[in-house]
Design brief:
4 helices, single chain, alpha+beta, 2 domains
């Protein structure tokens, strides 16, 4: 990974937008409702009878608004999360000190891309996302429930594919210029 004694040529410290649940309790309630709905459908097929129609009309009338309310009150919202782009002579590091994925997974990420292994970097202007395609060496450290980082990486591997981040949390930063001015990579700008 990043050598401790090797200083980057340039560090861009900023924020990305990540999706977090609006209401964690609604997410749990949504899962319960999905199980109930799936059970009604499966049991209706097993017994070859519409079990929903077997419920009283008041239960039917109340069930539908509750389902609509739970699915619209839940959902996700954008929240800023710190990131750093570290530009070295031969490689780029996308560093995320603490990125929330879900209630069970929050992790520190160190994603190292050798410039020669980057197939392309794409900026999607409408969705405001930077996509980095290529091969990366990744070290991910999952935080424990009490917020402590392990001394050994939870994941340490080389992988090919896509790594992306949302730029909408930092509208003042011109990510295309930053990448092009501090690395040998030309960014492809896409308007869709």
């Amino acid at each position: 990974m990043e050598q401790p004694n090797e200083q980057p040529n340039h560090v861009l410290s900023t924020y990305e937008n990540i999706l977090v649940p609006k209401n964690e309790k609604m997410s749990k309630l949504r899962n319960v409702l999905l199980i109930v709905i799936a059970s009604i459908i499966v049991l209706s097929m097993v017994f070859q009878d519409n079990l929903f129609s077997e419920l009283s009309w008041t239960t039917q009338v109340l069930f539908i608004p509750v389902v609509i309310w739970v699915f619209t009150a839940g959902g996700s919202k954008n929240a800023p999360s710190p990131i750093e782009l570290r530009f070295h002579n031969d490689y780029l590091v996308l560093y995320r000190p603490k990125r929330y994925y879900d209630k069970k997974v929050t992790r520190m990420e160190i994603n190292k891309f050798m410039y020669k292994d980057i197939d392309r970097i794409l900026y999607k202007s409408k969705s405001q996302r930077i996509h980095i395609y290529g091969t990366a060496s990744v070290e991910w450290f999952n935080y424990s429930k009490d917020g402590v980082l392990p001394s050994q990486a939870t994941t340490d591997k080389t992988t090919s594919g896509l790594c992306f981040f949302r730029t909408s949390a930092a509208p003042e930063v011109n990510f295309v210029s930053e990448i092009e001015n501090h690395s040998p990579i030309k960014v492809i700008v896409e308007d869709r």
